[in-house]
């Protein structure tokens, strides 16, 4: 079963977005992530940005990329819910950590933060509804 069909088969709240919306939203967000996180990694390697500032960005990417596998590969709502909480936590940590160094990176990622906040509530609700 593909991810679209699996998403459609889950019990969802009435306010859940249609499955087709995720692709375009994540396309825009991944462009933002590639540019802004790329700037962070570039500064880390060229200008000595502290690695403790870079660490939450690395962790965020790991947790972000793990979500699809956990949700649609393993088909495990509980692990996906834990993972999305880690995506949200590391994103908040990253934006707070980078703000004193590269403000535009923090500000540029506000749409990502808003979407992940929404996705966290959605995933927690779906996990609850599909127990």
Q: What distinguishing features does this structure have?
A:
single chain, 131 residues, mainly alpha
What is the mean predicted local confidence, pLDDT? Answer: 95
Q: Low-confidence parts, pLDDT < 50 over ≥5 residues? A: none
Supply the helix-strand structural class.
Answer: mainly alpha
Secondary-structure element series: HHHHHH
Q: From the alpha-carbon coordinates, what is the Rg to the nearest angstrom?
A: 16 Å
Which oligomeric state applies? Answer: single chain
Could you estimate the helical fraction of the residues in percent? over 70%
Number of strands: 0
Biggest sheet layout? none
CA-based shape:
elongated
Number of helices: 6
Q: CA-to-CA gap between the ends? A: 20 Å
Structure notes:
This protein has a domain at 50-131. It contains 6 helices and no strands. It has helices at 3-9, 22-46, 51-73, 77-98, 103-108, 110-129. Helix 3 runs antiparallel to helix 4 (77-98). The longest helix has 25 residues, at 22-46. The chain starts with a helix and ends with a helix.
């Amino acid at each position: 079963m593909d991810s679209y069909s699996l998403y459609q088969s889950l019990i969802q709240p009435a306010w859940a977005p249609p499955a087709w919306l995720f692709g375009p939203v994540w396309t825009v967000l991944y462009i933002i992530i590639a540019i802004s996180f790329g700037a962070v990694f570039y500064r880390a390697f060229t200008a000595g940005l502290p690695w403790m500032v870079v660490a939450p960005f690395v962790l965020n990417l790991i947790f972000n990329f793990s979500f699809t596998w956990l949700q649609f590969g393993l088909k495990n709502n509980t692990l996906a819910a834990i993972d999305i909480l880690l995506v949200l936590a590391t994103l908040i940590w990253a934006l707070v950590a980078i703000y004193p160094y590269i403000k535009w990176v923090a500000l540029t990622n506000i749409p990502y933060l808003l979407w992940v906040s929404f996705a966290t509530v959605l995933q927690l609700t779906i996990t609850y509804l599909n127990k």
